[in-house]
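thought: fold this chain, then report.
action: predict
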Amino acid sequence: MPIEITKAEETSTPPQKPEQSISSSDFIPTEEKLRFKDVVGLDEAKQLLKRTVGMSLTHKDEYEHYGKERKLGLLLYGPPGSGKTFIAKALAGEFAIPIIIANIAELISEYVGETAKNIAAIFKQVNDTAKENGKGCILFFDEFDAIARKRSGRAEGEAAALRSALDTLLTEMDGVSQRNEDTFIIAATNMPWELDAAVKRAGRFEDMLYIGLPKLSDRRKLLKKELARASKDVVSVWTWRVARATYGWSNADLKKLCDDSKAFAMERKIAGKSGKITTGLMVWLASRTKTAGNIEWFAQAKDTLKNMGDADQVYAPLKKESESLTDFQEVKSFIRIFSLYIF
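observation:
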């Protein structure tokens, strides 16, 4: 996500530096109640997170006993709305480890040097939290590309403003590794190919985990979960039919479909009509919903990977899903319209 930074005109009053910068105490760790059981699907991702993050923070003595270096960072990547933040929170809750979620909008400042100070402050808070509770701490960055994008591809003003921020980030990560702190850093991005190469070097975010779109069975589970919030007497839905009609939809897309269906049915009930949430209603709303965002994202990813020599190895899961989804686009409308009748 490019950050536009404008330079104040000479005739105007230059922007004043804030009276007080963000301090480490401004980043509050949370004790998540979510667990892996709350995450529908993504079984392979859960297992990998258990082996890398969970074991690294909860079995530190065993790592030292076997002389094995602990992992420091993990990069989650995938299409928008696939649940990257949700699974990071569930990981923290699964192992009862505090998590600090870095709000990129709060970290980035228009004032020179402030973004770097904010990054240093949040790392200090993570380290302090890990020491206080004795269990460690997880630091999570969403929209990571906002501060870790390739330095060579930035506009001149933007590069000057954010270069020190990225340098600070890398320095802080190296410091965590050298001091052997009980900290694990997770970052999420929709555009991993846009990240600076230094970020993905060994000892930083050398491991990447693809968080993709839900499969048919998982879409059905997600629909059931969301519809279960409504009273049983207003729901008459064959979820497997709706799941078939929503191929290529993300977790967020499915949740919105359920919310829209509830709102539509509720308005009809208030108007004195049938207030049932039905299969036909949901398939009809699905057919009218624009989900081109994911299609466009996968199409962009597919084109980008063509020009990358190591794409087959590094982005294998993404490449497989992008080819499947973009090829399926031509018949997607047919499936939505006729799934109610033929499936």
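thought: worth noting. The chain has 14 helices and seven strands.
final: tokens above.
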